[in-house]
Specification:
Layout: H1 6-12, H2 15-27, H3 32-43, H4 50-62, H5 86-94, H6 98-105, H7 109-117, E1 124-129, E2 133-138, E3 141-148, E4 151-156, E5 159-163, H8 168-180, E6 187-193, H9 199-213, E7 218-226, H10 228-235, E8 245-250, H11 255-263, H12 265-269, E9 272-275, H13 281-284, E10 293-297, H14 305-316, E11 324-328, H15 334-341, E12 352-358, E13 361-368, E14 371-376
Parallel strand pairs: 1-6, 6-7, 7-8, 8-9, 9-10, 10-11
Antiparallel strand pairs: 1-2, 2-3, 3-4, 4-5, 11-14, 12-13, 13-14
Helix pairs in contact: 2-3, 2-4, 6-7, 8-9, 10-11, 14-15
Length: 379
């Protein structure tokens, strides 16, 4: 500190002067991160930690703070929980949802150190993109990011924050990156929902986040409205040891991307597969035998007698893991289904059921005009 220029030192050691400098950056509509970097260049990187800076910048921006407000960061003014043990503080902070943990971390350094050490309690993560808006669902909490002229309006519960000169997707992905990098993250559910004509923008932003995070651990992944080639790239970022459930709703697909998809370890290790629509069935059918459960939406595509035969021979009879198959919105002939599984049965109605036995295994098969199901009997 003694080696700092005297004029700079005069500002750095005066908390109110620093707040005026932050306000000046805000009035110039400089984004918070750019403003912090600018002041680091002017005053040195140690003049203030980023979360402290962000606390004042955002507080002055939304009106919750003024230049003379109480500083919850400043050590000489900060109130300590002297009557509450560290153990009890940890218990209390552990009950907070993932979003409120970030807010609590800005209250004081002791909270921040506890939260940084705690394992993430984020279990459900859902990104939903609309044309000009983005929503993040985290556990049971919703944060929306809406375009407001050239700015982004962030809404959480009854709180609002205007982020100047930023697009909703950019702000949302910055928050997503922070949440997905938390210590000990172990998700149950990861859901990406794109929108027509905006999928590529979402993909590029999400890919950057996943590359910065590394490997994500989750039991279930659902990706909606992205091309299959992009879906394959996203799936590569998930831990194969934990992943159990894949739901893929591709907007478009080609043979090469499907071949890449079925070669992924994430595909090979999953137990449940949901597809809508079903891309290139003739290619994927030979890569289905390891799944326990298959749920297919054919989106009015045809399913021939040969397709049914391959399902029987390459999945139902070949697999030791198979338990259940269902399909809907499929164009098929129930006569073909009966011919493949029970040549002695006659088609008496558009809906019905049969029992199919092979070796020591029994299957219950039910059919209706737009789909059918196959269920293995398990003793």
């Amino acid at each position: 500190m003694d080696q700092i220029d005297r004029k700079v030192k005069c500002i750095v050691t005066d908390s109110r002067a620093l707040r005026i400098c932050i306000l000046f950056q805000l009035l110039q509509e400089i984004p918070v991160l750019d403003a912090y970097e600018a002041m680091c260049k002017a005053f040195g990187e140690q003049f203030m930690e980023y979360l402290h800076f962000e606390y004042w910048y955002m507080g002055l921006s939304n009106g919750s703070l003024n230049l003379d407000s109480y500083d919850r960061f400043y050590s000489s003014e900060r109130k300590e929980w002297k009557s509450v043990t560290n153990y009890l503080q940890t218990m209390i902070l552990d009950k907070l949802n993932p979003i409120d943990r970030f807010t609590a971390g800005a209250v004081c350094c002791s909270f921040k150190s506890i939260i940084d050490y705690q394992r993430s309690n984020l279990k459900k993560f859902h990104i939903f993109q609309e044309e000009n808006n983005v929503s993040l669902y985290m556990n049971d909490n919703l944060v929306t990011y809406e375009l407001d002229d050239d700015d982004c309006l962030v809404t959480y519960e009854e709180r609002e924050l205007l982020v100047k000169n930023k697009r909703p997707l950019e702000v949302a992905m910055n928050d997503a990156s922070r949440l997905l990098k938390c210590r000990g993250l172990n998700l149950d559910y990861f859901y990406v929902n794109g929108v027509k004509d905006e999928g590529l923008i979402l993909f590029d932003a999400l890919k950057n986040v996943l590359q910065s995070v590394g490997v994500l651990t989750t039991k279930s992944v659902l990706i909606n409205w992205l091309p299959s080639v992009q879906i394959a790239e996203i799936l590569e970022h998930f831990n194969t040891e934990i992943l159990e459930d894949l739901t893929i709703k591709s907007s478009e697909s080609d043979e090469n991307s499907i071949k890449r998809l079925v070669r992924l370890e994430q595909w090979k290790q999953a137990k449940t597969l949901t597809l809508s629509p079903v891309p290139h069935y003739s290619l994927i059918v030979k890569h289905l035998a390891h799944f326990q459960s298959l749920n297919f939406d054919f989106s009015e595509e045809a399913f021939s007698e040969n397709d049914i035969t391959r399902l029987r021979d390459e999945v139902v009879l070949e697999s030791t893991k198979f338990e259940y198959f269902t399909c809907e919105r499929v164009q098929f002939d129930a006569t073909h289904l009966l011919r493949v599984f029970d040549s002695h049965s006659a088609l008496n109605s558009l809906s019905g059921s049969i029992v199919y036995k092979s070796r020591n295994v029994t299957f219950d098969i039910a059919y209706q005009p737009d789909g059918f199901s196959i269920k293995k009997r398990i003793d």
